[in-house]
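Sample 3 of the quickstart, ligand zinc ion:
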Amino acid sequence: MRATTLLRKALSIQHLIVHGFEFDDRGIVVTVAPTNRVPRCGECGSIARSVYDRRQRYWRHHDLAGMMTRMRYPIRRVRCPRCESVKTERVPWADSSCNFTYAFEERTAFLAQQCSKTAVTKLMRIAWRTVGEIVTRTVSEYLDKGDDRIDGLRHIGADELSYRRHHKYVTTVVNHELGVVVWAKEGKNAATLRAFFEELGPERCKLIETVTIDMSKAFISVVKEMVPHAKMIFDRFHVQRILQDALDKTRRDEVREAETKEQKAILKNTRNAIQKRESNRTDDDLETLEELRANNSHIFDAILLKDSFAAVLDKRQVNVARLNLEQWAVNAEASGLVHFQSAAKTIKNHIDGILEYVRTRFSNGRTEGLNGKVRTITRRSFGFHSAAALISMIFLCCGGVEVTPAFFHPLGFH
Ligand SMILES: [Zn+2]
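Result:
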């Protein structure tokens, strides 16, 4: 077998001729050409016989036996009769605007979905920003295939997440039934979420039964406006945050009012132990709690209020949970703790949406750990410069996008 035949098989690209190869300081360069002699327009695919010029171009393909592999071809620019302008010809191995082969991009996208940032950049030997660009192309192709992702949605959750150190936001919508992100857009205000429902249109909006959101006024007003028939569920994570904040504020007040330095230091160190879930506390944490019970009844009462609230949300029966929640609010108001009194007010104002959680158990955080996954991606995406790249990464990893890495087919092509 000749070396060029071996290379053609190893490159594993259809409609490709291998003319020769050489080595340079970076790896192997394979001289190739498409099998079609008559060029086609890269934009519309029309036959375009009139060649305008040729330019040497290189495409990265995946490594052959660990060698960086590039393909070289003097690509033609053609006068396209249909586009009525000069266009780059279509080649079978890559998008005409792109310096990586399809196979290279598929492999990169697959790795980006499965592996760490370091694994992708080192294995593919490209910058993280380039990974972002490749992911954006792969995902937009997937999304272009149709908008059936937002068809037949019944139970959804909308959430905002910050990136770039809380300077920028992306709003995501998840399908609770499938546990996938179905929509995402830059921004976090009412207009952002409204854009989702507008895209959904009135017919599909009618199908929506529940929407899980945080208690922000912006989201509440949009849900009331766009899907007034749907039940609003307040996301458990966000609801519990109110109590955590109240506890933390109470603790800080106590630190401020402590009389001695020692007392201050002891109270400061309690943050970790008291914020934990009841079930996650260690023996050391419990000891801390015992000390607080003996020395600082305010913080101890605050912990009890926070913990007992979480216990109410664990209830299975809505009517039991309602009674418990009402009793909880009475206790909070009677506690004399100002931050819990104001938390109780918020809870009472949103009680129906909180109880919807008990009924449905839908919560944005719980959807297959989706929320955590999205947040991890956001951290990984540091270095992406646009919201588009971050959104693409979210879709790639949480949107049910299927990518299959390209494989070598020894007998596939002749
Ligand atoms: Zn054209």
